Amino acid sequence: MKKSLFIIALASTTALVLSGCNAKTQIDPNSSEIVSEIASVIESEVDSEIASEIDSELVEGNVTPAIDAAMDDFASLMDAFDEDAYIGFVDLDGTVVLLQGVLTFEDDENNVFATNATCFVIKDGAPTFCGELKSGGTAYPIAVNGKYLYTGNHQGFSKYSFNSDMYLIEEEADGEEIEETNDVMFFKRDMLQ
Asked: How far is it, in rounded angstroms, from Cα 166 to Cα 176?
């Protein structure tokens, strides 16, 4: 929004400068075209800056690490998903996990979260199913902190890690660790490719 206001202010200022403040100055009949051209250039530069910020948010946000290596590792699996599938990536203490949202919902800011998801890791060089996460509704979206995935319901919270076979195992979670979690955001499969 700030960038849009900046563009409007800059275009207006340019129009005033080009038209001049002195009544004796002759106004160039092409000044509106020049202003439009300048505004277009500024807008395209701002749009590319916004696109870069969005890309960096995808890489640095809760979907981390949506990195090229992870995308390549999981490409064959993602190609098998429906085109409307929502996916997210999380890093569990160095292990990249792909989450396919089974039950998803949007918040007021159009962020997508999941209450149920299937989980996949790379095992022996191939994407491998490692378990399912099920939360008790939209009040309890799937969350993550450094080493654990979390789900919740009205009775409490569970945390998940991996056993030696890279399969999700469930433990009861205590309140202190819950405070340090971030909700996992999900994106349409084609947005990440």
From this structure: 26
Task: Give residue 75's pLDDT band: very low, low, confident or very high (50, 70, 90).
Answer: confident
Helix residue ranges, H only, the chain: 2-19, 31-60, 68-80, 175-178
- Residue 183 one-letter amino acid: D
The sign one gets for the Cα dihedral 6, 7, 8, 14 is positive
Report the distance separating Cα 159 and Cα 163, nearest Å: 13
Long-range contacts of 44-52 (CB under 8 A, 24+ apart): 46/3, 46/6, 46/7, 49/3, 50/3
Peptide bond preceding 127: is omega within 30 degrees of 0, i.e. cis? no
Over residues 29-62, the pLDDT tens digits come to: 555 666 566 656 556 665 555 555 545 444 444 4
Which residues, 6+ apart, have CB-to-CB distance to 99 below 8 Å? 87, 88, 89, 90, 114, 117, 118, 119, 120, 133, 142, 184, 186
CA–CA gap between residue 132 and residue 117 (Å, rounded): 6
- φ/ψ of 175, rounded to 5, equals -60, -35
- Strands of the sheet containing 168-172, edge to edge, are 168-172, 156-162, 149-153, 143-144, 182-183
Q: Are the CB atoms for 76 and 44 separated by under 8 Å?
A: no
Q: How is the beta sheet containing 126-134 ordered, strand by strand?
A: 126-134, 112-123, 95-106, 86-92, 187-188
